[in-house]
Here is the input.
Amino acid sequence: MARWLAHKNTYAAAGLGIIISMSSPKVWFITGASSGFGRALTELALKNGDKVAATLRKPEAISDLTAQYAIDTVLPIQLDVTKHEQVKAAFDRALAHFGRIDVVFNNAGVLVLSEVETMVEADARTIFEVNFWGAAFVTQEALRVFRDENKPQGGRLLQVSSGAGVVGIPGNGFYAASKHALEGLSESGAKELDPAWNIKITLVEFGAFRTKMLADNVKLLPHHPAYDNKALAGYQIRKYIRGTLVKGDAEKAIGQVLKLSRLEDPPLRLMLGKDGFSMVRDKLKGYSGELDKYEAWSADLDVEE
Here is the structure.
């Protein structure tokens, strides 16, 4: 997949149009490294000459990588992100092993498809435990490590969000809610940071890509017969996600994430995937129109002194 460009002392991710400088290999902390985006990024980072603390529930899932790379290059760490003490211990172990952590890819997540009305409470709570609380615990520890442990200070926190974190998705409401929550947390946290700490947060808003999350790892709940109408948006979303219409190439997207990790001035939000842009632009257009139309309703709502 890759080749060396010796005359430039650079590395090219062939086919992705990305050339990454090899002057300063990064140390990554990746959650959900067993499959999907997490696995793809672990592989690409290692090929790029970086080092990876690969966290996952079952370390044996990446035994092929640990056999291929030395222990000073890839460190598998068993981790359930919903357990805050485990998250702290995983960061401490990675620090003790590598000396610093440059980039955190906050990726672990679950997907359960259901209309809002028919979502099972246990599944809804699991979605939030992993997608929000797990991501929040990783966020807290990443900020602490970047500021207090790294010498010099600094680091990049890449939050795996989604187009569903910006726009509500029919048939996928609780997942969308968990990503909306992560968006709010991350934007607020980014505004709290002292620029002197050199910590940058980016919400990577993925569209639909061909990963195990949309294949083997998605849970599809039975829906109420009232939603059987094939013209309803929720029905169409299920058909799209579970069918062959998803065209996003996960490896190409992860190549852009690697490029993002090297930016000196990264964006707060980076949307990846063609399907998200029109969806978000339509929302912004509609929201802007509603703001203009109803702004006058707030003209006289202050307390009269």
About this structure: DSSP finds eight helices and twelve strands in the chain. The longest strand covers residues 155-162. Residues 189 and 201 are 8 Å apart (CA to CA). Helices lie at 36-47, 63-68, 84-98, 121-149, 173-192, 233-242, 250-260, 274-294.
